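The authors assume throughout that readers already know how a fold can be written as discrete tokens. For illustration, here is how one protein appears when written out as sequence plus structure tokens.
>
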Amino acid sequence: MDKSQALKWAYTFTLLLITMGWAVFLVFFVHRAITGVPGPLDVVGAAGVGVLLGALIAWNGNVNQFWFRKKEGSTPPAPDR
């Protein structure tokens, strides 16, 4: 595996870990906002945290599709009959 492939995998898994960590933070943030008397800032904060989580998930999916898709010509052509 060359260095660029190793960096792609490292970036992908780092992004995945950041996304999972943010999801855990979101659960704790929303739980804290719900257990007390929710104020307007709690609602806005929970919504913002959720929107960022969605953006991270979408970015992770885009990175995986771009880097790990099959390239044209990578599969041998079908034999003629």
